[in-house]
Fold this sequence. Notes:
5-stranded mixed beta sheet; 6-stranded mixed beta sheet; 42% helix; alpha/beta
Amino acid sequence: xxxxxxxxxxxxxxxxxxxxxxxxxxxxxxxxxxxxxxxxxxxxxxxxxxxxxxxxxxxxxxxxxxxxxxxxxxxxxxxxxxxxxxxxxxxxxxxxxxxxxxxxxxxxxxxxxxxxxxxxxxxxxxxxxxxxxxxxxxxxxxxxxxxxxxxxxxxxxxxxxxxxxxxxxxxxxxxxxxxxxxxxxxxxxxxxxxxxxxxxxxxxxxxxxxxxxxxxxxxxxxxxxxxxxxxxxxxxxxxxxxxxxxxxxxxxxxxxxxxxxxxxxxxxxxxxxxxxxxxxxxxxxxxxxxxxxxxxxxxxxxxxxxxxxxxxxxxxxxxxxxxxxxxxxxxx
Length: 332
């Protein structure tokens, strides 16, 4: 058998190529074998900075970085009721390095109102449940309205005059406003934003009349907004004299539309990576400092299994479907 004889320069080039390829393969194999995590984790916030989702993410990522021994970088991908960020994570590599700080709205509600390129029930897997929101019905104090019954009476007398802000189409605040319309027969107009922060800011500025959102509590305490009712959880110590929406007389109210927060990842993340993330998040949520920090942004920590989290998503999806089905949430 005869082997071809190459000129010396060509032999050197071939040898260099083979060595480089071997080194690359060795490096790739070494990286693949490194324990998780061996590089920074991207933590996607699907709304604009300054809202409740962002506030929750900041509490979680600070401690998660300490647990993981790697930076956890918040990346903002706002738009389409939070579904742009959710879609980005759903399409990301299933390696545990891209996580979504999920609001219940961007997986259970918004996909019913906007076109999305992912299936929230099959393309994302629950990592850990964080907790439930306590939201308020808050109004600009310049309006002559001091209670929820007064708001309803004013809206009936002035149909279409009042406006309400939300963090986007398909968010819990949007559906809460639509549910109030349906249950009381009033006509108030929806004004969507790309997050809670700009929505609440415009109510404070008087550009929009009212909002259904956890973020409004801090402005109520400052006297910049007036609370009419709360919903979604136990009475807040910041709102001692404010009734619940149900106590204010609205029948058929759904507290789950106050919102909830949890962490999801792309489907098919390796079980050992999921187990490690779930252990860390569970330890973080058991810390008194974490519970207190989340309480300050109107989120009550609740422990749910991944299966219970999936059930909660389905529950809110069905509630939203009923509101959407009668047409009240369409075209806003």
